[in-house]
């Protein structure tokens, strides 16, 4: 299974609402690789972009972009996305959230046996606290997005192509050298936070589903995730979930140059399209919402297919126009369960 991630927007605080930023994850079975490459190559040819040159939404007329969305909707891949409105995220609230998360990382250091481990957590906590606010917002969104990919994506594909779940290849857009600290923090903290979240809210499993390929990511009885208790002081229920998220995330995980990766270019086009749609930047935003919705999956918990995250408790995360577009996406999204 290939998972391609990219974002659109800087996540920097804005002065006015409707300043949307998005992160998209395109989850695509290996069987689609050649077809996806062919569609992207054809799109580039249609606008005079060289095959090895990265294509951006700004290169495309609306009609050509919509045609591209229709083409990839015929494939088996699905889109997950997180959106946040930088105009509604008050700087003080973002900073408070960041400070709280940094403190949580080290709150159990007194329970840890080894000094080196305690010092490691202190250092990681300091790195998170020192992140620029926009990078912290992006980190929080990205972690929530990956959790949704693992939970909902697995449930979707175990009913359709269960053997594709035996391997996960994560390809994330690498911006530039100045982002290396962000990427280091992301790699260090994400598996532990995702594992902790899976303990609090276990992943839904389909009764009778074929999890034979996916089961290679299960802990054995001998190597259950005791590190959460040993390192973070998080108690682990012996009868709880057995998914080794660290293995699932780290086994095949790379930050890549999007210019050299077709899948990440697709994720960029999808993230950019969502952002433009929420900012009402298309001539026909409703058609854009429907076409993007065709790539999404109905949430089994009744949530919109795009997750909206905010940091300010005093305001709604979403205005009326974006809420309407989100409902259009939801009505046009794919069913989670296969009717037999």
Helix-strand blueprint:
Elements: E1 2-8, E2 20-28, H1 33-46, H2 62-72, E3 78-85, H3 91-105, H4 115-130, H5 133-158, E4 169-173, H6 180-200, H7 227-232, H8 245-250, E5 253-256, H9 262-278, H10 285-293, E6 306-308, H11 320-331
Parallel strand pairs: 1-4, 3-6, 4-5
Antiparallel strand pairs: 1-2, 2-3
Give a description of the structure.
This protein is of the alpha/beta class. 45% of the residues lie in helices and 11% in strands. The chain contains eleven helices and six strands. It has a six-stranded mixed sheet, with helices on both faces. Helix 3 (91-105) runs antiparallel to helix 4 (115-130), helix 9 packs across helix 10 and helix 10 (285-293) crosses helix 11 (320-331). The chain is globular. The model has no long low-confidence stretch (mean pLDDT 88).
> What gross morphology would you assign?
globular
Alpha-beta classification: alpha/beta
Main sheet, how many strands, which sense, barrel? 6 strands, mixed
Widest β-sheet, arrangement of strands: 5-4-1-2-3-6
What is the H/E string?
Answer: EEHHEHHHEHHHEHHEH
């Amino acid at each position: 299974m290939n998972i391609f991630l990219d974002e659109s927007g800087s996540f920097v605080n804005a002065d006015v609402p409707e300043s949307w930023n998005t992160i998209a994850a395109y989850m695509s079975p290996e069987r689609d690789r050649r077809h996806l490459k062919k569609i992207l190559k054809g799109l580039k040819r249609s606008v005079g972009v060289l095959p090895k040159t990265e294509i951006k939404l700004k290169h495309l007329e609306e009609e050509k972009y919509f045609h591209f969305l229709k083409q990839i909707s015929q494939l088996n891949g699905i889109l997950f996305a997180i959106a946040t409105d930088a105009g509604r995220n008050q700087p003080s609230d973002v900073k408070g959230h960041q400070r709280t998360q940094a403190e949580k990382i080290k709150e159990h250091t007194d329970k840890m046996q080894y000094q080196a481990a305690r010092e490691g957590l202190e250092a990681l906590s300091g790195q998170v606290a020192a992140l620029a606010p926009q990078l912290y917002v992006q980190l929080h969104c990205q972690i929530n997005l990956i959790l949704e990919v693992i939970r909902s994506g697995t449930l979707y594909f175990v009913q359709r192509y269960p053997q594709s779940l035996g391997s996960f290849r994560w390809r994330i857009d690498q911006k530039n050298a100045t982002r290396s600290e962000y990427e280091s923090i992301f790699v260090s903290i994400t598996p532990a936070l995702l594992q902790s979240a899976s303990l609090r809210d276990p992943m839904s499993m389909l009764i009778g589903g074929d999890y034979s390929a996916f089961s290679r990511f299960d802990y054995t009885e001998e190597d259950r995730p005791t590190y959460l208790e040993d390192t973070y002081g998080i108690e682990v229920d012996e009868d709880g979930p057995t998914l080794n998220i660290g293995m699932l995330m780290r086994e095949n995980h790379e930050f890549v140059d999007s210019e050299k990766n077709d899948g990440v270019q697709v994720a960029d086009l999808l993230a950019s399209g969502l952002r433009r749609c929420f900012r009402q930047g298309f001539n026909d935003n409703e058609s854009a919402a429907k076409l993007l919705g065709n790539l999404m999956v109905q949430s089994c918990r009744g949530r919109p297919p795009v997750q909206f995250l905010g940091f300010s408790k005093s305001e709604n995360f979403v205005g009326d126009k974006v809420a309407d577009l989100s409902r259009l996406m939801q009505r046009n999204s794919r069913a989670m369960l296969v009717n037999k």
